[in-house]
User: Fold Glycosyltransferase from Micromonospora ureilytica.
Amino acid sequence: MPAPGCGSASRAATPPARDGSPEVAARHGARVVHEARRGYGAAVHSGLEAAETALVCVLDADGSFDPTELPALVAPVASGSADLVVGRRRPVAAGVWPWHARAGTALVAALLRHRGIPLRDLSPIRVARRDALLGLGVTDRAFGYPLELLIRAAAAGWRIRELDVRYSHRAAGTRSKVSGSVRGTLRATRDFAGVLRTVERSRWR
Assistant:
């Protein structure tokens, strides 16, 4: 599990898992960070806290993203021309991105653009500086984590860029908790809605 452009260390943060993914990550040289709490945000944040490099790259380690594309995302942050770089998924084949997941993402991205955040996707691949990410104070520990992160980053005046990345089929025998089913997409949408409600309440206090 190389981390090109993100320093010499790889971290694999995982919630309670029965599929053997922590063992696979360890065999490939990653330091596995075990997170007792369930939830996407809990796993990602634990990995962020455990990271020891100035720049942090986050991506799903399910084979859907190519880590060799990370240097292109790292470059703007490393050079100081961007504070956060997010990948925009470009499916490489039919059926990679189910219609319900694509529709849910399009809706959330439209809401972000309405807030002045220039994104077309809410993908799980991004690069930023570790200390800056921790300083945002993201509190969601479920699927709403990346949405809250983006909203807080924009509110803090971060320069956010979006770059195209290839999006492929997941590794055989695995299924996404979000895009793998309509139910999963609805669950993620519920978490996103919760984040948006929280943000709206805080605006009017």
